[in-house]
Amino acid sequence: MKAIFKDPRHYQIVVLSALLAFGVTTRAFEISPAQVAAILATALGVQFLGSFMTAVRFEPRSAVITTLSLSLLLRADALAPLMVAAAVAIGSKFTLRLYGKHVFNPANAGIIAMLILSQTVMPGAAWTTPGQWGTALWLAAAVAGAGLFVTYRSARLDVPFIFLGTYAALIIARALWLGDPLAIPMLRLQNGALVLFAFFMISDPKTTPDGALARTVFAAGAALIAYVLGYHFYITDGIFYALAIMCIIRPAIEALDPAPQYKWGDPVSRLRPFKRLPFSRPHPMPAE
Amino acid sequence: MRRSFKKTLFAAASATAALALTGGAIAFCGFYVAKADTKLFNKASKVALMRDGDRTVMTMANDFQGDLKEFAVVVPVPVVLEEGQIHVTDSAILDHLDAYTAPRLVEYFDEDPCMVYEREEMAMAAPMDAVTVTASKRQKGYGVTIEAEYTVGEYDIQILSAEQSDGLAAWLTDNGYKLPEGAEATLGSYIKQNTKFFVAKVNLEEQAQTGLHYLRPLQIAFESPKFVLPIRLGTVNAEGKQELFVFGLTRSGRIETTNYRTVKLPTGQNVPLYVKDEFGDFYKSMFREQVEKENERAVFLEYAWDMAWCDPCAADPLSRQELRELGVYWLGSANSGALPRRPAPGGAQDVYVTRLHVSYDAEHFPEDLIFKETGDRSNFHGRYVLRHPYKGDASCEAAKDYRAELPKRFEKEAQTLANLTGWDIDDIRDRMNAGNQSFTPPEPEPWWKRLWGGDKKEG
């Protein structure tokens, strides 16, 4: 029993499932059971294939989390675009690797890939729907609270707070400069999609730096890029692009603050913030 | 002649800054639904937004009912517009789009339960409802630059840029616009975002020449990465909420707001028959109720339709010329011989239409509406169903069951209506009873009635 709760992924699966159920029942999320099933089947299939080809143990939990994340964030009329996203998401874990870690957050990679395809060769195939959660504060608080627990378990409590704190500081500063009422930045900060992103996507321990300082740079950088993309280039999906960009430059950040790599189920104390450990290159790990 | 009167600035179409002020008889006919010709929504505006990539054509209509001298509108625009980017169109086109996309009532007549034809009668919500140019010039003052000046149709238009909000406010005040309190801060925010201001008043001489007693919709075409409808100026001192209808005309699919939730209006429910005579009230009450249910923070989707795939098309779809007039440039004109991207049968056109309805005020909608175009091409429309019971003679067993089921069905309709509109359920039941939708189950026929019934007739 204890072992079940030691791995934060279990909490994450429970919480994301609950959010999906909540979204579908009370927020009319436009995702059908068939679409969720198609994403899940593709994710598990690619995970299995990847595990087989790299000769590691088949591990379904991360594929389930990716399925839930995609179901919460990506929309399409058909099944195929969501399956492509799932395949890219899981496939990227096995193919795009550096220093023994996968480069991209899997669900983020899937979303970005489909967004780019939707703007080029498959017009309108898939899209995100940042407004779907509405802006009810209590909802944001619930997501944050649940996410808090998950990220605490996975020793990444700092990431959502640094990300949201930096992002909040930027948009509040902008509102003050413009002379806008603070209701405007508050509206943006209560966006369920933003909170979900902060607690469940960018805080993924496998694709955030292991060193506390590097993590700070990573989270703050993502917030800054998201702000610039959103407010200066009017890109509504700025947060996803921001995370992808930070993932690309993550190895450079990690080189400045090396730390042992997180493994699922590691106790929190092992990764106390700012407790520097002797220099060591992140050791290669097979994809889980 | 110096203008001695104070203009009433009012928020034109949404996007606009409607600074509605004094006395403005800004009564706005909502739409007339079914036979009801009541004004459904006051202070409403209609905006059609053609969007393709960065290309945008905004058509803004309002049913300004006051003294035309008092009409003035300030619309924040992202770029300085050239004369050719401004146009005045026929209000009938927006009215048509409104009528075409309005929530509607559908009637079905039950068939003879003993033996299915169906007749669909649509009570469509009727709608709520030319160019000369003068040379442009520049002048400076108050830190305000008149970037351009045109007379288009019945409007005198100026495009302003400003350095400071107080300068702009002073300029507007000195030029006969009366600004509400609080407008200056909002103007300042737009100025810092490098926004220009499209300012229009009515040119009375030109207006007289049109021979019309109303103002025609203004159109602007521009390119901008921002897909935004500025509503903030309109909320500055508005009394109560304002109604806005946004008609999206896009290529890939439905539009929705990114900073507010877009919610589908309840649709497809069976409602009591008497709703037919008060569809306007029904729609208005239902909309209010849904707004409340969403904590007054939602934008409502009322219609979303792929016009390339209407088979059959709803009555009287928009023609290619009308759509082009609204900015759908890719259709090609009827005479140009340009072909659409894919052949469209009948009245079908390669356009996706979205109708959004929002009731907004500063408290619940502090920020401008930011839109995105999705790839969703599924169809949706607000539609309410009247089911007429079968009235003819029918005496088979099935008919008895059918009649026995009717009260249950009526009760469900009553509850649906109460739930949708917030109307009192007992009133609804009374109205239904009065309207021949009785909740009293038919007297069960004594078991012996049919025992020798047939024999008697013979004798």
Separation of the first and last Cα atoms of chain A: 22 Å
Which structural class should the secondary elements of chain A be placed in? mainly alpha
Shape of chain B: elongated
CA radius of gyration of chain B is 26 Å
Share in helix of chain A: 55-70%
What share of the residues of chain B lie within helices? Answer: 10-25%
Average per-residue pLDDT of chain B, rounded, comes to 76
In total, how many domains does the architecture of chain A comprise?
2
| Biggest interface, chains and residue tallies | A-B, 33 and 36 residues
Strand order of the largest sheet of chain A: 1-4
Extract low-pLDDT stretches of chain B: 1-39, 116-139, 335-346
How would you describe the oligomerization state of the chains in this entry? heterodimer
Number of strands of chain B: 24
Structural class of chain B: alpha+beta
Helix segment tally of chain A: 12
Number of DSSP strands of chain A?
4
Largest sheet of chain B: 9 strands, mixed
